[in-house]
Design brief:
This protein is mainly beta. It has strands spanning 48-50, 57-60, 65-71, 78-85, 91-98, 104-109, 118-126, 129-139, 157-159, 166-168, 174-180, 187-194, 201-208, 214-219, 229-236, 239-248.
């Protein structure tokens, strides 16, 4: 049975996954040269390719989805594998991995909160230089798509904040909290997105609903300018449960 909830304190801003971080983490830096992602087969560029090389790249909505490939970079070289989607289910995930002795590499990323049928650009970088990129399609894990007719799955979920907007300080350890009538133990994704030209960002964290129906995450906004506006939202199983505006003070 679901219980009514009311979100508690929101600390905003930030999910750009950096080295070894799971969804939600510090904002990344570094350039990523523009390129047209390969839709069907993997194109080898700069001696690097993302597998499979003979067909479309399909990833599943798992907590341990794995991106693999080959490169002519020396064994032990550090590579960054980045997945970005700016569609309806926008996200950015990035992991650092090391080239193996046989020239292969693998990076495990958490895609469990990504909506099915989302497309993302997969980019492989070395020292902030793009080696190759291609498009991936993200599909639900077989047997977990519960889209039965007549069920909406929407929950009563809210952010708690003073005034009209969610507010956070331009500082570290900002807390974003709320309540929901989802079952205790359920994971929800708190996402903050800003398209401000000065300091754009996309950050998200996963929180677990407590026995009292509350959830909370902490994010670092120390490098975000005061006055930056953003959109705060909570997601579960590919559905947006609540959206509201926010601002960094």
């Amino acid at each position: 049975m679901r219980r009514r909830v009311t979100i508690a304190g929101l600390a905003v801003v930030g999910v750009l996954l950096a080295t070894g971080a799971a969804i939600g983490g510090p904002i990344f830096s570094g350039s990523s040269p523009a390129g047209t992602p390969a839709e069907d087969g993997a194109e080898t560029a700069n001696g690097t390719a993302v597998h499979p090389t003979d067909g479309a790249l399909v990833l599943e909505t798992r907590a341990n989805a794995t991106v693999t490939g080959t490169t002519d970079r020396a064994p032990g070289t550090s590579l960054t594998v980045r997945l970005v989607s700016d569609g309806q289910s926008a996200f950015l995930v990035q992991r650092t991995t090391t080239v193996r002795e046989d020239g292969t590499f693998a990076a495990t990323v958490d895609l469990s909160s990504v909506a099915t049928n989302t497309t993302a650009k997969v980019t492989v970088l070395a020292d902030d230089t793009e080696l190759t990129n291609r498009t991936a399609r993200i599909e639900s894990v077989p047997g977990t798509d519960t889209g039965e007719a007549g069920t909406t799955g929407e929950a009563d979920t809210r952010f708690r904040h003073d005034g009209e907007n969610v507010t956070v300080q331009s500082a570290a350890d900002q807390r974003i909290a709320g309540t929901t009538d989802l079952e205790p133990g359920t994971n929800v994704t708190v996402r903050l997105k800003s398209g401000n030209s000065g300091t754009p960002f996309l950050r998200q964290r996963t929180a677990t609903v407590g026995e009292d129906g509350t959830f909370a995450v902490e994010m670092d906004f120390g490098n975000v300018e005061a006055g930056t506006t953003f959109e705060a939202s909570v997601h579960h199983d590919g559905e947006t449960l609540v959206e509201t505006d926010g601002v960094v003070r």
